[in-house]
Every structure is written in C-alpha cells, then in structure tokens.
Design goal:
By secondary structure, this protein is an alpha+beta fold. It has helices at about 1-5, 15-25, 80-85, 105-115, 115-145, 145-155, 175-180, 185-195, and strands at about 25-30, 35-40, 45-50, 55-60, 65-70, 75-80, 90-95, 100-105, 160, 165, 200, 205-210.
C-alpha cells in the first residue's frame, strides 16, 4: 500500500515514516459496477483513491438530468473538498466497472496534512489548477459555438494511452450534450463529421482521437454550428 501511495502526485513527496502511518489507516473497498460511492449533497468524510477500475464524477438536477464532470482511473482521487471543509458533497460518484478504492478518513488525512506541509502545498496547487481550468473552460464555452465546445470537451476528457488520446469510458451523446449546453442531435452531427473525416474512431467503450481536431467546422456546404 505504501508503494501505491508514492505513485500518486499528492503523496509523492511524503516522508516514508509518515507515509507508512497513513497507509496503515487506509481501508480497501471493493465496489461492483454501477455502485454509487458518494451522492451530491450528502455528508461524508472520506477521500477516495482509485486503485483499479473507472469512476464517473457527475452532477444532476431535480429532474434527473446529469452532467458528466470527469472520468477517473487508477491513481486519480476524489472527495478532497468535503474532507477539507466538512461540507456536503458537491458532486456524485458512480463506478463504471468493478473497482477497488482506497478510503482515507478525514481525521487521518488532516493528520497527514499537519505532519507533512508539502502535502498541503501539493493539494493547494492541485486545487488552484482545477479552479483555473474550470474558469478557462467556462470562459471558452461561453464564447464558443457548438462545434468548438464539443471538440474542446473531447480533448479535456481524453487521457493519453500509449501516445494516443482516448476518451474512456465513452460518454453518451446525451452526456456530451448536457455538458456543453447543446442538443443531442447537434452533438451527433459533429461526431459524425469528425468520424467521417478520420479525426476520431468511435468504439463501444471509447472515443479515440486519431489526429488533431480541426479548429473550425470545415465541411463544405454545411451551415455553421
């Protein structure tokens, strides 16, 4: 467990003895596919680290409409905000396949921060980066057309795997439409254009970005979107 923690940037600079103490407090939990780990608005006090599997982080409204925020894989973590401020969860998390997660209770994580100032600095940098990315995304999405919003979202959701950008698990057209504030039909048109142009490959489980996506909608004879 100690070795696994050192692969996570948040804990990579932690002193070995403190790392060992923290690892002793970690509980391993197994989750089946489609298990809800945390629910938006609930009170809970744990930080979660993905050891195996994939987890979807999302928000939803009273009508059940969901918006995908991000998909997490091994080495990623979530739940740090509620651990720090003790406020209700700001998003929900559900497993996309069978998963193994490490769970760290709030009191143990706070002791870790107090004993390791470098961890607090790492966390501040991570949170600052997330805030900056969110601000940039909001500004760009507000000023962009549907095509640009969708291609930016695909690039943001993608992960590099053997030098190739892959969006996995594959978001549904409804997920993408909700995220960028467009209709599913418009999303379908853009994806078809990118697929027909050889820019992406759509499989049952992923969207593979094969080459640099065009900056603008370039298909002759089609209206701007």
């Amino acid at each position: 467990m100690t070795t696994a923690l050192t692969t996570i940037p948040l804990f990579s600079n932690m002193q070995h003895e403190n790392l060992q103490l923290l690892s002793n407090q970690i509980q391993l939990h197994q989750y089946k596919k489609n298990s809800i780990i945390i629910t938006e608005g609930e009170q809970s006090d744990s930080l979660y680290i993905v050891n195996q599997g994939k987890v979807k982080i999302y928000i939803s409204d009273d009508e059940g409409k969901e918006m995908l925020l991000r998909a997490l894989g091994p080495g990623d973590y979530f739940g740090e905000l509620a651990v720090l401020d003790q406020k209700p969860r700001s998003a929900s998390a559900i497993t996309l396949c069978d998963c193994t997660l490490s769970v760290i209770k709030s009191k143990d994580f706070m002791q870790c921060l107090q004993s390791n100032p470098e961890i607090a600095i790492n966390l501040l940098q991570v949170l600052a980066s997330c805030l900056r990315d969110a601000t940039d995304s909001q500004r760009q999405l507000a000023l962009m057309d549907v095509y640009s919003r969708l291609t930016l979202t695909l690039q943001t959701l993608s992960r590099v795997d053997n030098g190739i950008n892959i969006v996995e698990p594959k978001p549904t057209q409804k997920d993408l439409a909700n995220k960028i504030g467009a209709s599913r039909e418009m999303v379908s048109r853009v994806l078809k254009y990118l697929k027909d142009g050889g820019y992406i490959e759509i499989t049952k489980i992923s969207i593979v970005i094969l080459k640099t996506l065009p900056e603008k909608w370039q298909k002759s004879g089609c209206p701007d979107i």
